[in-house]
Amino acid sequence: MNSADTTDDQGDLPEDTQAGAPADSEQLAADQLDSDTNETSVDASATDQQSSEEAAAPAPPPAKKQVAPKVDKADDGEAKMDWYILKVAFNREDSIAEALRKRVKMEGMTEEFGEIVVPTEDVATFTRDGKRRVTKRKLLPGYIMVNMIINDDTWFLVRETGGISDFTGAAGKPMPMEPSDIERFINKPEVDDEDETPIKTAIPFKVGDRVRVKEGNFENQEGDVDSVDEANGRITVIINIFGRSVPMELDHWQVEAL
């Protein structure tokens, strides 16, 4: 076959077949561009929708401020100073009371707070060699008493002091002390020197305890504690002598627990 025949054969092909390859490439490129544009539009629409949902989401509620419970006020409507009892860590009453005093001064609330008291009484104890010693004994272990005005600031200061768990009272409301309790624990009665109240003796026994006499005429005899006299430091012990129960009054240091 000569070159003329080849040329004639190509001339017989349809025009769209001769230009088919370039036309198909351009069409594919156009289709790909349209697809990319559609995907971009979908992504942008989804992003806009997500942003709208985030913007429409409600903001979290603000933290609730702690406020003091409502307490009774004076007749003129002003908050009044009252005595309250605070529950505190056991055996840390003195250090917690001192920490509260320091916080009151640091926060400048001395006008809202009065006395802070750990109620105690004087008692006499005896060393092993028989020497008498006067010490302080806590009347209410695990509690302290404070004279104060209740408001949001003072209530929060007390509650945030380490070692203090809460006020005493009902339904979370601080309950002021009764006048009789204030007289008993806070206001010490004034006495003359001649009528001075005798110091109690700390006696480690109670009624019903089983004890043994460790010195005197009834040494090694056993009995039960019948009564305790803290004012004079003596106890009455029921001892069995010759088959009869006999009450014997002894100094508390003359006996020992079984």
From TrEMBL:
Name the Pfam families for this protein.
NusG (PF02357)
Q: Which residues form the KOW domain?
A: 204-231
Segments of this protein annotated with the region Disordered:
1-74
Residue spans with biased composition (Low complexity)? 48-57
NusG-like N-terminal domain location? 80-189
Query: What are the Acidic residues biased-composition ranges?
Result: 1-15
Note the superkingdom of the native organism: Bacteria
Keyword list, A-Z: Transcription, Transcription antitermination, Transcription regulation, Transcription termination
Instruction: Give the compositionally biased regions (Polar residues).
Output: 38-47
Q: What's the stated role of this polypeptide?
A: Participates in transcription elongation, termination and antitermination.
For this chain, the family text in UniProt reads: Belongs to the NusG family.
What the entry lists under HAMAP family is as follows:
NusG
Q: What is this protein called?
A: Transcription termination/antitermination protein NusG
- In its UniProt entry, the species of origin is given as Novipirellula rosea
